Amino acid sequence: MSDAPRRGLGRGLASLIPSGPQPGNASRNGDAPNGTQPAVVPGARLAEVPLDAIEPNPRQPRQVMDEEALAELVASIKEVGLLQPVVVRHLGDERYQLVMGERRWRASREAGLRRIPAIVRETGDDAMLRDALLENLHRAQLNPLEEAAAYQQLLDDFNSTHDELAQRIGRSRSQITNTLRLLRLSAPVQRRVAAGVLSAGHARALLAVEDGAAQDRLAGRIVSEGLSVRTVEELVALGDPEPDKPRRAASKRPTAPGVQDLANRLSDVFDTRVRVDLGARKGKIVVEFASLEDLERIVGLMAPNLPTRGISDADG
């Protein structure tokens, strides 16, 4: 076959809906043991669609694509495949029109894919499709990366909010935010998470390593040496020196009793990762946020009287 090889990785919302018309007894799918089968989603089905059979939406509001972001998505698709399916509607004669996901469609073409996963929408009601997919998050057993991709697509394509996701699937907002952060990992590390080689805890610890190559190297050590999550966190805090390179005496970082405890308590208050760094002469507090909406929420907690309205609309 000339198509790109299919990888055993999750595909976000593709993991939440049946892959085609269901037989008469399909209603039993939602009752499978341990929730392994998603319930039928009204007005939608999952299909592998030829890229050449999909035409762009002429009313697509986004006319300018960020070339750098598009190139990053192309590289990710080449490495781990398309995690989030596009949403299309059937035009007849094996032709489809994009409803959501033009960046993913364009990037898949540039990555050389022949076919991509698509949610074929049979209804014009986006809210109904969104609600059905949210309900299926209760039933489907997803690995952490699949879960993160599903959250991100619900946020991007269906205008869901972090609060709505948290309430509908019975998780805390911080769990939603921390799971979404897994999508920032390098492609090779994402592949290990999807394959179950790395746990979500290991993955979150690796997020503190900004360099992709360093992430990959430390992920290899986790697998080969069986490192615990706590050990990885300590290695990251020390700068993860390579085993064959001695630590420089001058690289010691100042420490103070209770600093890590303070960082942990701040993380609980703001429902996100907070880091307290001490330098030779000064220090800094780093508060991470997952989106502009999340930034608004955190600033509201820090300074309730500071106007934040409009921050989340900065990018239009």
Would you mind describing this structure in some detail?
- By secondary structure, the chain is α/β, with parallel strands linked by helices.
- The chain has 2 domains: 12-182, Conserved hypothetical protein from pyrococcus furiosus pfu- 392566-001, ParB domain; 253-316, no CATH class.
- 40% of the residues lie in helices and 12% in strands.
- The protein is built from 12 helices and 7 strands.
- It has helices at residues 67-80, 102-110, 126-136, 144-157, 162-169, 173-180, 187-194, 200-206, 212-225, 229-237, 259-270, 292-302; strands at residues 44-50, 54-55, 86-92, 95-100, 115-121, 274-278, 283-287.
- A 5-stranded mixed beta sheet has the order 1-5-3-4-2, covered by helices on one side. A two-stranded antiparallel ribbon has the order 6-7.
- α1 (67-80) crosses α7 (187-194) and α8 (200-206) packs parallel to α10.
- It is globular and about 70 Å long.
- The relative contact order is 0.10.
> What is the domain total for the residues?
2
Order of helices and strands: EEHEEHEHHHHHHHHHEEH
Q: How many separate helices?
A: 12
The best one-word shape is globular
Can you list the strand order of the major beta sheet? 1-5-3-4-2
Fourth CATH level, the homologous superfamily of the largest domain: Conserved hypothetical protein from pyrococcus furiosus pfu- 392566-001, ParB domain
**Percent range for helical residues?**
25-40%
Average residue-wise pLDDT: 77
Under the CATH scheme, which class of the largest domain? Answer: Alpha Beta
Low-confidence stretches: 1-10, 22-35, 243-252
